[in-house]
Specification:
The chain has 408 residues and is α+β, with helices and mostly antiparallel strands. It is 28% helix and 23% strand. Helix 5 crosses helix 8. The model has no long low-confidence stretch (mean pLDDT 97). It binds 1-methyl-L-proline, FE2/S2 (inorganic) cluster and fe (iii) ion.
């Protein structure tokens, strides 16, 4: 029944328009999103800087599934379902922490960091622990970014990895530490949070602090771009070419985007005045103005890689009208707080921007709930929303008809 309903909604869709109402507000569709999108693809989980030492872990809720991502004793990043093999209790109860071994709080079954059950008190002597390891979750680490997939057979990640690595690797994310992180809850559907991030049509009217430094144009040859932007682009790309830093828009199809774009003139970082946020630059950079590599990947992540810091954004759906957005700011691992950087200065622009975007997404969600809502047309600068919608409809179509239908 639900699949039939979704098929009907997919037939109703209009290319170049926002989605039919139910995709944004409906409880059943939300459940379908969890299966069709969040249980079938790769999701951004965390930075390796959050789990530096063996036993460091973070947990992440993916619909009904909780996943624990940790660093094992060999220094490898591993992920498991956070569900005990005894009677199924959650094991790690915190968003992050450090554990020598994972001990279930219910009856204290003990798991090694490699997932093996190593102690099950009071169980009979002939109980075979080897059949009760934690259920593994697929993990990929790309330039310090940990992605996980709860799918049985996740899609290939090779093209994404190969394409974005040359842009991001020069920033050496492996040599960073977490300066700050925050999670906000937005009373809006996750797709509205993503759509909001995919366009800067809303920036001029809503992001005064961000627009001190951020250029509104998403492409070097943006149709609305003025002479100042073109000049800025020319001088910046000449400098990046000299430094051997890739900048041209990568071909990520409808799944991901990667590009290096300049900041506004005389600005080098996301601060109030555009001056650096951290005096100790990443990697061995000596040039504070490297613009920013903007990279996003569907369905739940966008990022900025600057000369002086990195910002990761992680989106997780909590309900049809509730979404968690976690922001993590990374600086050079040797940068000293209070000396090289100040947390407020480093984080204030994006903290304000996130809150402005939260309000926009919430009002958007409220407006869409009305009987007056009809899908509306995208502006040319909203081309990434068209890509997102296409990608989402593809996922829903796979869910309804099975992935084989695409091959025909
Ligand atoms: O920079 C970002 O993360 C995106 C690009 C445009 C809107 N948003 C601020
Ligand atoms: Fe984990 Fe019993 S449910 S030890
Ligand atoms: Fe915004």
């Amino acid at each position: 029944m639900l699949k039939q309903r979704i098929a009907g909604l997919l037939n109703e869709r209009r290319s170049g328009f926002s989605m039919p109402q139910a995709f944004y507000v409906d409880e059943e569709i939300f459940q379908a999103d969890l299966e069709a999108v969040f249980a079938s693809d790769w999701l951004f989980a965390c930075s390796v800087a959050e789990i530096k030492r063996p036993g460091d872990y973070v947990t992440m809720e993916i619909g009904r599934d909780s996943v624990v991502i940790l660093r094992d004793r060999d220094g490898e990043v591993k992920a498991y379902f956070n569900t005990c093999r005894h009677r199924g209790s959650r094991i790690c109860l915190h968003e992050s922490g450090r554990a020598n071994r994972l001990v279930c709080p219910y009856h204290q079954w003990v798991y090694e960091l490699d997932g093996r059950l190593i102690n099950a008190r009071q169980m009979p002597a002939d109980f075979d622990k080897s059949g009760y390891s934690l259920v593994p979750v697929h993990v990929e680490v790309i330039c310090g970014m940990v992605y996980v997939s709860v799918a049985e057979n996740p899609p290939s990640f090779a093209r994404f990895r190969d394409t974005v690595t040359p842009y991001i690797a020069p920033h050496q994310p492996d040599r960073t530490k977490v300066a700050f992180s925050s999670t906000i809850i937005e009373e809006a559907n996750w797709k509205l949070v993503i759509e909001n991030n995919r366009e800067c049509y809303h920036c001029a009217g809503n992001h005064p602090a961000l627009l001190v430094t951020l250029v509104e144009f998403a492409l070097p040859d943006h149709p609305a771009a003025n002479a100042t932007f073109k000049n800025l682009m020319d001088t910046s790309t000449a400098r990046w070419d000299r430094l051997g830093l890739p900048h041209k828009p990568a071909d990520g199809g409808i799944e991901f985007r990667c590009i290096r774009l300049p900041f506004n003139e005389d600005c080098v970082s996301f601060t109030r005045d555009g001056a650096p946020a951290c005096n100790k630059l990443l990697a061995d950079f000596t040039e504070p103005d490297l613009g920013s590599v903007r990279m996003f990947r569907v369905p739940n992540n966008w990022n900025h890689f600057l000369a002086d810091h990195i910002i990761h954004f992680r989106v997780l759906p909590l309900g049809p009208n509730r979404t968690a957005v976690k922001t993590t700011w990374l600086v050079h691992e040797d940068a000293v707080e209070g000396v090289d950087y100040d947390i407020k200065r480093l984080t204030e622009v994006w903290t304000e921007t996130n809150d402005e975007d939260r309000i926009l997404a919430e009002h958007n969600h409220q407006g869409i709930q009305s009987r007056a809502y009809r899908p509306g047309p995208f502006a040319p600068s909203e081309f990434m929303l068209k890509n997102f919608a296409e990608w989402y409809y593809g996922k829903m179509s796979d869910y309804v008809h099975g992935p084989a239908h695409r091959i025909a």
